[in-house]
Amino acid sequence: MTGAVPSLTQLLTRRLALIAVIVFLLNSLAVGIYYGSDRNALENEAIAQETQRMQDALVGRSVPEDAAVRTLYAAHPDAYAFALVDRGGSVLEAMNPELIPPAAINLFADDWVTRLDKPGGYLVVAGHEFGQQEDGQRQDGEHEHGLRMIFVMASDPARLLWRAFLGEFYNHVWLPILPLVLLLIGANIFLIRRGLAPIAAAAEWARSLRPGEPAPQPPATQVPAEIADLIDATQRSLDRLTEAFDAEKRHAAEAAHALRTPVAVLVARLDALPPGETTDRLRADLSALSRTVQQVLVASRADVLTLPESTTVDLRDMAEAVTAALAPFAYSKGIELSLTLPHGGVMARADAEGVELALSNLVENAILHGCAGPVEISVGPGPVLRVRDHGPGLPPEAQGHLFEPFWRGPGAVPGGAGLGLAIVDRLQRAQAGSVEARPAPGGGAEFILSFRSSI
Prior knowledge:
- With 455 residues, the chain is α+β, with helices and mostly antiparallel strands.
- It contains ten helices and 13 strands.
- The strands form three sheets. A five-stranded antiparallel β-sheet has the order 2-1-5-4-3.
């Protein structure tokens, strides 16, 4: 996988948001086509906007010379024109009056629009009457002073029609519909998250399942029938898997126990044989077989190891016990064991038997691969045990395979089964600890057992 897989909530949210956006765009397109196809309506809207700008700029019965509304007419003298006319037909003020038809000056009406044909198009002429009081304040509905505006548009270089179109689009699409779309997307996100919460609870429950351990209680929250059926089926499958797992561990332990007696008998009978090369080889083979049987028994115990939260152990005591127990084995192999301890105890949250088994496997492994060099055992700093040998070190092929069951590196000591380091890894994981292997300074390898602190 090249990237993180999106959650179901993200997928549904994206799809619903995409649908909402598509609907919004289609609606915008439909409204745009509708308003864009009605040129007369756009012209009327543009005229209404321009007359409103002129009315806002009026001071008394004239427009100030510096008013922004004059910019349009000054910049486009061949396209736009206006005139302010009183009720008697007198032109009080005008810009580009040559565009204004004379008949429009004497046309009295509140609001009117006409379109006059001209070469290459037509001329839009409109009139609007303002209502004013004597002090110049606008008040619609009062027309006794009869101030009228004549507006002419011969072409549209200032894109008044486009502005009118955008205004209609904003008022009829963006303003009423866009907030609704955003509200729907937000409501969908909330409802999707709420609806998928039982699935998240079921997934959290499934992540807590462990083979060989009793299944935890299903989610306490009410879940839909389909999810409840999935939880029930998962729990039944786990029960069957646990039964098969327990049977496999039981069979392995029973087989190992059954093999211990015949191996012990063979060792006793070997002692009755006369010394010789063949007897020595048989004794070495039986020693390897006995160690393999012992490792199978340890592996079966590692699978059922449980660690109550209140369990603690002093790593200093464990290191002393393992060193004392394996000293004869190291002496028989010509290996010197050294132990370095801190002044005080080092408490860890771990199982005493699990720590002893893990450390014993590492020390035995170091003795067998140490090439007659010393094996150094140390405690600390912190809840850590270290085992260092002076052998050939870690081969490049060990990367990613060192703790796999039955994996043996090139040049491994004959007679092993490749279970020792795999058992150590399983024991550490069962105690919520870890094991690390790395090259040691000056040659050899160092293995580090890390545990949780009891503090």
